[in-house]
Amino acid sequence: MNLLIIATAMLPVVVLMYILYRKDCMKPEPKEQLRKAFYWGVLSCFLSFAMSGPFALIGLYPQEAKTVVDALRISFFGAAIPEEIAKFVVLWYFLRKNPYFDEKFDGIVYAACVSMGFAAFENIGYLFMNTENFLRVGIVRAIFAVPGHLCFGIMMGYYYSLVKFYPNSKRHSTNRLMVLLVPILLHGLYDTMLFSVGTLPKSLVLVMLVTFLVFCFRMWKYAARRIEEHLARDVNFASEEERAKCLAEFRRLAQENPKIYEPELASTLAAMGDFCREHGNVQEAEALYLEAVATYRHVDATMRHSYKTEMAKVYQSLGTMYFADLGRNEDSKRAFSEAIHVHYAMGSNHQVDISLANVFCLLADVYFQEGRFSEAKEKYANALDLYRKRADNDGISIAMQGIEKSNMEMRL
Predict the structure, then answer these.
(1) Which segments of 1-41 are extended strands (E)?
(2) What is the pLDDT of residues 308-352, one digit of tens each?
(3) CB 140 within 8 A of CB 177
(4) DSSP structure class, residue 41
């Protein structure tokens, strides 16, 4: 009997973990790491109890929900806040020095495993408290509670990866807040709707249950989209077919919500361009870079934040690629010239000036290769002025060598 109860509690957990593991097809995590994350999730239950107990003692929530406000307090202070904080703490401890955490999707996988460890322990407890009708309770929890915990974990892992892999993002501070805020809000609202059913008049119970079902459906759908996003961001580990599918997904997302996803689309296009260039596919890389530039131009013109830095980098990558491709010096010069124009539009600071100087040196190299040594010398001199302005000794040395080399050729 006890084994049957445990099996009933564990079955939905195992099924959901297997489905998520199968999605990690590009670079699957070691199974031993997933088991460890699951065990840490079980331990997070005790950390949660260590918080929820004192919360009850100081009166943050009652033991029984008699009103909707009571349901709200129990949901957040008795469940959502201590449980999600506990999961976050063990997730942070598990991943802080984990060498296997090297893809964006990995954050979702590990956070989900932690969440499933918590859900498994909780599920076993609920079923043993309802041994007479454990099968009915187990089925209901398999449909709602366990997938709910999975969604909370997915959202935590989604933002955890954004914080780790995009430390210079303009949304970095927001993402750090969202790591805990989103799972707590989802968890708290989920429980509030359930706990408040017993406090409502009979005429409103059906309305609340329908609202709960709609909430669950939208939450599951939202979590599924976040999975697809991180899989798309890990495009460098994908096959050609998977990369095309990822790019199509980002284009669709950018059309639906351009404010959030258009910059991501441009970044993905640039990353895929880099990947194609490194693998010798110049034609595809060129198309991707040009689309990335056009997308960055649009978001730079329509949004508050500037994306000129990213745009300049793509132009520089284009110019470098053209320069390496024999017979495309004119294209290379155009790309580097565009990068220079974008830099001038960015104003002047240390980082911009050094980057601009680097582009001047690259453009000078193109002129030098063509035998147009006076133009090359002029561009090296432009770079030298910027390097001197910012006291970049390495850059000064490179620019001076370029000027000297140009002078020697001109004398010959």
Answers:
(1) none
(2) 999 999 999 999 999 998 789 999 999 999 999 999 999 999 999
(3) no
(4) H
DSSP 252-285: HHHHH-HHHHHHHHHHHHHHHHHHHHHTT-HHHH
Residue that the structure tokens 């805990």 belong to: 180
Write down the pLDDT at residue 280: 83
- The model carries a pTM of 0.65
Here the tokens at position 297 are 């131009």
Domain range list for the chain: 2-233, 235-347, 349-412
Right CATH for 349-412 from 1.20.58, 3.30.450, 3.40.1130, 1.20.950: 1.20.58
Burial 257-292 (b: 16+ CB within 10 A, else e): ebeebbbbbbbbbbbbbbbbbeeeeeebbbebbebb
Is 349-412 in the same CATH topology as 235-347? no
Q: What's the Cα-to-Cα distance from 269 to each of 15, 159, 253, 272, 290, rounded to whole Å?
A: 35, 21, 14, 5, 9
Comparing CA positions, the residue from 328, 319, 326, 322 lying closest to residue 379 is 319
Look-up: residue for tokens 């002078």?
407
Q: Top-level CATH class of 235-347? A: mainly alpha
* Pair 335, 362: CB distance under 8 Å: no
